[in-house]
Write a structure and sequence with these properties.
The complex is a heterodimer of chains A (114) and B (112). Chain A is mainly β and 114 residues long. In chain A, 0% of the residues lie in helices and 50% in strands. In chain A, strands 2, 4, 5, 6, 9, 10 and 11 form a 7-stranded mixed sheet that branches. A 4-stranded antiparallel sheet of chain A has the order 1-3-8-7, with no helix packed on it. In chain A, a hairpin with a 5-residue loop joins strand 4 (31-37) and strand 5. The N and C termini of chain A lie far apart (37 Å). The mean pLDDT of chain A is 93. With 112 residues, chain B is mainly beta. Chain B has strands spanning 5-7, 10-14, 19-24, 31-37, 43-50, 55-58, 61-66, 71-76, 85-92, 101-102, 106-111. The radius of gyration of chain B is 13 Å and the shape is globular. Chain B starts with a strand and ends with a strand. The model of chain B has no long low-confidence stretch (mean pLDDT 91). Classes of the chains: A mainly beta (114), B mainly beta (112). The interface between A and B is medium-sized, with 27 and 27 residues.
Chain lengths: 114, 112
C-alpha cells in the first residue's frame, strides 16, 4: 500500500538555524498538510496546500514557516530561524481528490532545537 | 474544553472486552474522523463520519455521531492486544481545506 514518507526521522538543530523537513506524499494525492505534535500535547494543524498554493494556515504558521512543492513529488516545510519552542514531532499528510477525505500521515520527523 | 476533547484520557481493558471512547466538540462540523496512533508512529485513519450520518461501522469499529450534542463515540468490539494505541477524534469544521482539529486523545491499553 502506498505511504507517505518523511525524512529525516530525527533532526537536531541549533536555535536560530534554518531547517527543512521533507515529505514524499502519496503520488496521486492532491492535498498536502503539515501538522505538529509537541510532546504530550495534541496534534496541531499548521498548513494545508492544494493546487500549488496554501489553502489554509494556522496562527502557528507565521512568517518563519514556509512550504513548497518544488518538483511535483516532494513537499517541504521550512522553518527559517528555529526557536526552542519549535521542538516537536512534525507530521506530513496527504489526501486524495477532495479535502473531505481521510488523510494519510507519515511517521513524522522529530525536531529537536538546542 | 477545546474542539475535539476525548474521554476518558486513558483506558485499560482485557483482551476480548469492548472499548468505548467519547469525543466532544464545540463548533459545527462538516465531518468527524477517528485516527489511531501507535507509539512513535504517524496517525492512521480509521473511520470518517459525515455530519448528516448518525452511525457508521467498519469491521470491529462502530462510530456514532450526535450533532445536537456535538459528540461522537468510537466503540471497538472484541479488543485485541494489537489495538493498544492512542485514539484521536478530529473534526473538519468546513470541509474545503482539509484542516483537521484534533483532540487530546484516549490512550487505550489492551492486556492479553
Amino acid at each position: 500500500e502506498p505511504e507517505v514518507t518523511q525524512t529525516p526521522s530525527h533532526q537536531v538543530t541549533q536555535m536560530g538555524q534554518e531547517v527543512i523537513l521533507r515529505c514524499v506524499p502519496i503520488s496521486n494525492h492532491l492535498y498536502f498538510y503539515w501538522y505538529r505534535q509537541i510532546l504530550g500535547q495534541k496534534v496541531e494543524f499548521l498548513v494545508s496546500f492544494y493546487n500549488n498554493e496554501i489553502s489554509e494556515k494556522s496562527e502557528i504558521f507565521d512568517d518563519q514557516f514556509s512550504v513548497e512543492r518544488p518538483d511535483g513529488s516532494n513537499f517541504t516545510l521550512k522553518i527559517r530561524s528555529t526557536k526552542l519552542e519549535d521542538s516537536a514531532m512534525y507530521f506530513c499528510a496527504s489526501g486524495p481528490w477532495g479535502a473531505e477525505q481521510p488523510q494519510h500521515f507519515g511517521d513524522g520527523t522529530r525536531l529537536s532545537i538546542l | 474544553s477545546q474542539q475535539g476533547e476525548e474521554d476518558p484520557q486513558a483506558l485499560s481493558i482485557q483482551e476480548g472486552e469492548n472499548a468505548t471512547m467519547n469525543c466532544s466538540y464545540k463548533t459545527s462540523i462538516n465531518n468527524l474522523q477517528w485516527y489511531r496512533q501507535n507509539s512513535g508512529r504517524g496517525l492512521v485513519h480509521l473511520i470518517l463520519i459525515r455530519s448528516n450520518e448518525r452511525e457508521k461501522h467498519s469491521g470491529r469499529l462502530r462510530v456514532t455521531l450526535d450533532t445536537s450534542k456535538k459528540s461522537s463515540s468510537l466503540l471497538i468490539t472484541a479488543s485485541r492486544a494489537a489495538d493498544t494505541a492512542s485514539y484521536f477524534c478530529a473534526t473538519d469544521p468546513r470541509g474545503n481545506t482539509g484542516k483537521l482539529i484534533f483532540g487530546q486523545g484516549t490512550t487505550l491499553q489492551v492486556k492479553p
